[in-house]
Amino acid sequence: MTDTNRRAILGLGLTAGLAAGFAADAFAQSATRGDAPTEGAVARPAPDAKYRVPFAVIGMDHNHIYGITDAIIRGGGVLTTFYATDPKQIAMFRKRYGDVKLARSEQEILDDRTIKLVCSAAIPSLRAPLGIRVMRAGKDYLSDKAAVTTLKQLADVRRAIKETGRKYGIMYSERLEVPAAVMAGQLVHDGAIGRVIQTVNLAPHRLSAASRPDWFWDPAQNGGILTDVGSHQADQFVYLTGTKRAQVLASQTGNFGNPAHPKFEDFGDMMLSGDGGSGYVRVDWFTPDGLPTWGDGRLFILGTEGYIELRKYVDIAGRPGGNHLLIADKKGTRYLDCSKVPLPFGPQFVTDIVEHTSVAQDQEGALLAAELVLTAEARATPARR
Q1: 296 plus 332 within the same structural domain
Q2: Residues 12, 48 contacting (CB under 8 angstroms)
Q3: Fewer beta carbons within 10 angstroms: which end of the chain, N or C?
Q4: Does 23 map to a domain?
């Protein structure tokens, strides 16, 4: 985390919230997370949102689009139009955001010079080609992860960024939109556990097979489990270790529970090594029905002077809710309830668009995370029982 990131977070009141003991009314933010398109109140601009920036949405094949849209609205974005052809998607989007203008085509949005940003959660394999068209139309882009699904797409994206000077943002929501992860980044920056040596990410997900579209089962369209789910975890490794260059030491994928979909990967793991530290990632689709949330996401950050554990979404048979942070350092051990920590990404990203800065997300870091998972997926060996 850069000093600029730290100042931006402090400006959002994070430290003040800690000092106040995370009082229940200290912060107001959207309750929407991930696949919750109608949960809670519609997002409103945060008090410190500096600008109002017109933006559009193209592609809503994954419900992550609601979390992305909310984040940009919190940042000061003004949702002006969207494009979709599926009547169910159109109806659901309008149910949440009102009678937003439906464009007649993608091109209508690309040709509209008043629109500065396009957000997308299209089918993963379509996200990079769309992003390139958006950037070449003179607009910035924010994609759901996985934002690229092949190494060729990644090369094309990097070329388009260089040629257009536009942003290709990637919503790694398990860090950017999880309050406990925001707090962990702050603590790491402040040196609470010394220099980071390793990150360990465990990221199980609930399959909910009956509700999944056809593209979900096809690695050619979703990139495979390491590219899809693992993108979040690679981002956390890159960000928390401060890694600028990295390599994949080992990776494996397998299908252990879905014989009806032989190409589908329901398990994967990878070992990463970077110039800032090392990382291990395990991802799977085996969240049991008895767990009260979609996944028991865990993050362990080992430092030279302590360590941090995040129980992001649930503390099994323990404290209620999510966003639990535990830390052991020179001073002892303590627990932080991070549920009221504000989410700085939206205001930062909108400000970056206007001021041509890179506070919300480092472009090279975002693409390095993508490169790592694409490489891990391409080199993965078959996982065996």
Answers
A1: yes
A2: yes
A3: C
A4: no
